[in-house]
UniProtKB/TrEMBL annotation:
EC number: 2.5.1.90
PROSITE patterns found in the cross-reference section: POLYPRENYL_SYNTHASE_1, POLYPRENYL_SYNTHASE_2
Stretch forming the signal peptide: none
Naturally occurring in which organism (per UniProt): Shewanella aestuarii
Molecular function in Gene Ontology: all-trans-octaprenyl-diphosphate synthase activity
Pfam families according to UniProt: polyprenyl_synt (PF00348)
Domain of life: Bacteria
Protein name: Octaprenyl diphosphate synthase
Family: Belongs to the FPP/GGPP synthase family.
Protein's gene: ispB
SUPFAM superfamilies per the UniProt record, alphabetical: Terpenoid synthases
Keyword terms, alphabetized: Magnesium, Metal-binding, Transferase
Family annotation (PANTHER family): ALL TRANS-POLYPRENYL-DIPHOSPHATE SYNTHASE PDSS1 (PTHR12001:SF69), GERANYLGERANYL PYROPHOSPHATE SYNTHASE (PTHR12001)
Amino acid sequence: MDLTAIRQLTDTDMQAVNQLIYKQLESDVALINQLGFYIINGGGKRLRPLLSILAARAIDYQGQQHVKLAAIIEFIHTASLLHDDVVDESTLRRGRETANALFGNSASVLVGDFLYTRSFQMMTELDSMPVLKVLADTTNVLAEGEVLQLMNCNDPDTTEETYMRVIYCKTAKLFEAATLLAAVLADAPPEWQQALGDYGKFLGTAFQLTDDLLDYTAETDELGKNIGDDLAEGKPTLPLIYAMEYGDEQAKTLIKTAIEKADGTQAINEIIAALHACGALEYTQKKAEQEAQKAIDSLSVLPDTDYKQALISLAHLSVNRKN
Ligand code: FPP
Ligand code: MG
Ligand code: MG
């Protein structure tokens, strides 16, 4: 199933999600409307809310609360992006200036806080302690992941294991919540909750692995973000970690220096060549594909429906994308 077919399948639900998102964005404070609209309407893929919707439909959930869940997940994600672009000093996202570049860091952080706290107001409307608990834990782990990553920045000795922990915390955990909570809302049997939670976790991991790969392989125009941002930050992502283990001595020194000094952008072409030469990019792609396959395998206990097929297709699309 391609993305157009998946969008068609979820059109009614996603329209309701969008309506709720815009309603919840409203505030008497003009800057919140302005910046909030800029970021929410900025060509994002709406992947995480789409996952909540598909997960709910895949188990034939009959209520309407999945729409609110999807909006909550998108608010948390958007808040985290506003904060992330400040922390990462990024100037380009989704092919446009980042909110921090356009409105400044303070406005970005504070409107991020607005979205984040609004998501908690919406959670109370779901009136479910189990849902609240998962989301409270998820957002806390998200913050933990970012701090752990900060500690690893400029550290060339970061291991693959630590890297995998970071990407679980900062990315996969929210994907996991998006799909698991659809099953919680539906009061689904434990094995379906487990299946959908695992699917989200593996998919999120595959997604971030691909994200980190694209930082070295994509074209800025297509990606809508600046290539080499990770290197400029001295962020030890998997391609670099692999190359420092298996590359030749010259590559190791080059990459180690780039991570330590966070000035690798001058050597970016040389580093990309070194990553190709030792198979680091191939390795990362393989690992992303393996995680996507684990996501697909997790769904085996669910009934065969178009919605399950859509979830399977999304796993393939997540690791075969250009942006
Ligand atoms: C993008 O990663 C960022 C995240 C996945 C999470 C960001 C989370 C925070 C800043 C902390 C938590 C904040 C709240 C409000 C709960 P990236 O920088 O690797 O990807 P990019 O290339 O898209 O910037
Ligand atoms: Mg970033
Ligand atoms: Mg970041």
